[in-house]
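Lab notes, practical 5.
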Amino acid sequence: MRVGAILHGKRLVAIFGANWCHDSRALAGWLETPRFRALTDKHFIVVYIDAGRPQDSAGRNMALAARLGVSDIEGTPNLLVLDPANGKLLNTPESAKGWRDAASRSADAIFDELASYAPGAG
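Output from the prediction step:
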């Protein structure tokens, strides 16, 4: 994935979520729509990572999240945007954790935030 992202000039998006979480499902649903697919297919490689139930001390893959720059995860989803060349977190840990309200956000708000992390944006 990392090599593919580098070769194609894409960024990595690691989404730490859970299938039981309505916000994780909402975000995943938006990402499957044609509008979002056009954005992600062009600029990102998206990877879904099972976070378990971090709010109940039953989190999964928390060491990986910490290694990528986000620790103390308390809920889902968390969206990490990474530079594939060096693994650097491009969004802040706070913004990575700020997706826990994805189900109540508008499609435009989600799209605009994700688009702001595309290579060459801003």
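Observations recorded by the TA: The beta strands are 11-17, 44-50, 52-53, 58-59, 78-82. The chain has a mean pLDDT of 91.
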